[in-house]
Amino acid sequence: MEKKCTLYFLVLLPFFMILVTAELEESPEDSIQLGVT
């Protein structure tokens, strides 16, 4: 069980980091539109 949680964490962490950097580079309005659609 713990190994699965750790695996998901290692996979999702880089994904969220990329998501955050993408939001910082682009304007917030574009990020909101992408999230809605």
TrEMBL record:
GO-annotated cellular components: plasma membrane
Organism superkingdom: Eukaryota
A single MF term (Gene Ontology): calcitonin receptor activity
Family: Belongs to the G-protein coupled receptor 2 family.
GO BP annotations, alphabetical order: cell surface receptor signaling pathway
Name under which the protein is recorded: Calcitonin gene-related peptide type 1 receptor
Membrane topology classification: Multi-pass membrane protein
